[in-house]
Amino acid sequence: MKESALWYFIQDQLLQQRPVVFLCVLESVGSSPGRQGFKMAVTENELHGSIGGGIMEHKFVELARDLIRKNKEEAIVKKQVHLKNSSYQSGMICSGEQTVVVYRVQEKPEDILVIASAIEKNISGTLSLSQTGISFSTSSNADEHIAFEKKSETEWSYKEKTGFRNFLYIIGGGHVSLAFSKLMYGMDFYIQVFDDRPELNTLMKNECVHEKHIADYHRIAEFIPEGKNSYVVIMTFGYRSDTVVLHELIRKNFRYLGLLGSKAKVSKMIEELHQQNFEEEYIKKLHSPIGIQIKSQTPEEIAISIAAEIIMEKNSI
Known about the structure:
By secondary structure, the protein is an alpha/beta fold. It has 9 helices and 15 strands. About 30% of the residues lie in helices and about 25% in strands. The strands form 3 sheets. It has a 6-stranded parallel beta sheet with strand order 12-11-10-13-14-15, sandwiched between helices. It has a 5-stranded antiparallel beta sheet with strand order 3-2-1-5-4. A 4-stranded antiparallel beta sheet has the order 7-6-9-8, covered by helices on one side. Helix 1 (about 5-15) packs antiparallel against helix 3 (about 110-120) and helix 4 packs across helix 9 (about 300-315).
C-alpha cells in the first residue's frame, strides 16, 4: 500500500464526518515489528495501514476505538517494549521497543488532502506531528529523514521528510533493466534509465521508471549526480559500452555502483582498470559480479538478486 492511500482514506472519513484515529510509530529500537514511520488509520469498522501487526497492533486498535467511543481528542503517546518482564510490555517477545502516537484527527479534510497529494506526487516537504496535531510544510531543511524529540509526556515533536529518499540510475535498457525497473518501482527510489539506442523495444515498453533518457555513454557522467543516496547499476548491451560507462563513473562517489556481468568479464575489466591506473579505492567499491549470488538465470531472478544487494546496502548502518 502506498502511503498516500492512507492519507486519502483519512480525508475521505473526514469528508463523511466519520471519526478517524491516526497512529504513527514515532520511534523504534531493536527488533520491533513496527519501524519508525509506520502509519495506520482506524475507524469504528475499518483499518488502513499497519504499525507492525500482532497483539501489539491489536491493543493499539482497541485504544484508538476507545478514543472514538469516548469522543476523546487528546493525542496519546505510548511506549511498548516487546519483553515479558517490562512494565511497558506489549504482549510480544521480540525484544525491541516502539513508541506510538494515537491521535483522533481534528484537521480539516482539505489539510489532509494537501498531505495526501504531496506524498502521492513525492513533493519534498516536512510532515510534522506534535501534541497540537498534524501539519505539512513544503520546507525540508532537516538533515535527518525522520526526527523524534520528547521533552515530556505532553511535549514532543515528530518530523518526517516527504519526497523520494533515494535515486536509482540504471544504465542500459534491456531485458534485465526492464525486470529490475518493475521490481524497484514500488520502493522508495526515483528511477531513471539510460540507453544509447532510441528504438530499443524494452526501453519503450518500460513504464516503471520516472524518467527515460537516450544518452551518449561517453558523456554519461554528466547525467548521474554523486551522493550518499545515489545508486547506479551498469547493464548496457555489451563489454565495450560497459567499459565506457564504468570508466566515466568509477571515480564518482555513489552509495552503490554495480556492474552486471560474468566473473570472467568482470575479472578482465578490473584487470584493465588496474593497467590504466584507476585507483584501488574506487575499484574496491565496485559491486561486481552484481547482486546476491543465488544462481540467478532469468532476467527476473537477476533483478531480484540485484535488488536484494541494493536493499542490503541501503539499510546498512
